[in-house]
Amino acid sequence: MAKLQTAFYQQKDVTAIARQLLGKILVTAIDGVRTAGIIVETEAYAGINDKASHAWNNRRTKRTATMYMPGGVAYVYLCYGIHYLFNVVTSVENTPHAVLIRALEPVDGIGMMKMRYNNKAGAQLTAGPGNLSKALGINSGMNGESLTGNKIWIEQAAQINDNLVSVSTRVGVQYAGEDAYLPYRFCIKNNNWVSKGKGL
DNA sequence: CGCAGGATGGGCT
DNA sequence: GCCCATCCTGCGG
Fold first, then answer.
1. Where are the transmembrane segments (predicted)?
2. pLDDT computed for residue A198 by the predictor
3. Residue ranges of chain A with pLDDT lower than 70?
4. Does any domain span residue A152?
5. Å from A163 (CA) to C8 (C1')?
6. CA gyration radius for chain A?
7. Which residues in range 78-97 of chain A are in contact with strand C, contact meaning CB within 7 A of any of its atoms?
């Protein structure tokens, strides 16, 4: 299966990338073990003009520096002190756009995912951004990692038809004011792995 | 069922 | 100090 290359990640329209990522395969290879899942839910964060983005108003910190890198690297950060959230950095250098991967449908290495998860999970294994990071072994060490290398990457797959995609508002961004209402969340309809609420 | 609460750490006012 | 782009558990009805 072909890896997505830099040109894909550097497209200017971050919502178009978020939309196109649905149905593609997110893969990690750690200690020779492949774990992979179909991307079923994404959210776009549109850089300095998006109040929900860490990089809103051109904010630069040690943490957000990764978002300013050229498209095609991983942006991983710790949320609520517990969960690592995995984002794909998009667009060109100094344009801090990103796509948050919110849910996967497991495909390869499910046994390994369950081991990493280390509880009675089955249904929740990769539904929700904190869960999927844990299942795929994604942590802060992956921050800034290239998505065209051999640790973590995304594989090409058939485009999901528009009538199977549902568009809605993003989760957990009430603080962003009117930007909280932007239609920047993309899910595959009727997929059991979409986080909370299932299906649509 | 549903919902409140806790875990836990970095970055900002 | 306090706010979070979260998730699981345990409690009450």
1. 67-86
2. 38
3. 118-123, 196-200
4. yes
5. 34
6. 15
7. 79-83, 85, 87
Q: Which nucleotide is nearest to A170 (CA to C1')?
A: C5
pLDDT for position A175: 85
Residue-level pLDDT at A123: 62
Whether residue A196 lies inside any domain: the answer is: no
Whole-number Å distance between alpha carbons of A8 and A23: 15
Is A116 part of any domain?
Answer: yes
Beta-carbon neighbour count of residue A150 at 10 Å? 9
pLDDT tens-digit profile of A16-38? 999 999 999 999 999 999 999 99
| Per-residue CA distances from A102 to A61, A185, A186, A193 (Å) | 24, 9, 10, 10
- The CATH number linked to A177 is 3.10.300.10
For residue A42, being part of any structural domain is answered with yes
CA–CA dist A150, A83 (Å, integer)? 24
Contact A89, A73 (CB under 8 A): yes
